[in-house]
Amino acid sequence: MKRVTVHEEWCLGCHLCEYNCAYANSGIPDMVKALKGKRIFPRIKVEDGGTPGSVTFAVSCRHCPDPICVKSCISGALSKRGGAVTVDRSKCVGCYTCILVCPFGAISTDGDGAVLKCELCLSNGAGTPACAAGCPNGALTVEDIDIPEG
Hints:
Elements: E1 2-6, H1 16-24, H2 31-35, E2 45-48, E3 56-59, H3 68-72, E4 78-81, E5 84-87, H4 97-101, E6 108-109, E7 115-116, H5 130-133, E8 140-144
Antiparallel strand pairs: 1-8, 2-3, 4-5, 6-7
């Protein structure tokens, strides 16, 4: 199974992973039209310590073998598909229980009340996760790891 791996020692805090993610999931073929002047809702978030020289790193879904977010979802909107935890936004009722239970803080919301999380670009046709493909410093890589299906 593929997984986005974060190498915080290489993260510049540039937020390009967030923009590439938001663009890849926008459904709009032109990046400028998709992002310019709009609030973006990436499925990956860059965190930093807020002080010069502090560590910056991207927070993304770890696609846990036995995901507590899937177990806690009251509507069945979260499920495992091909080893990745995915969201059926049409089923999400906005209870945000998954946000509360995720031990990594990898689930967020969009402007419409449904939850968002990394789905490894399985549903947007990008093939390779756009965050890793667009990282200029190699802080995000896509690696094959052995995660047993839960």
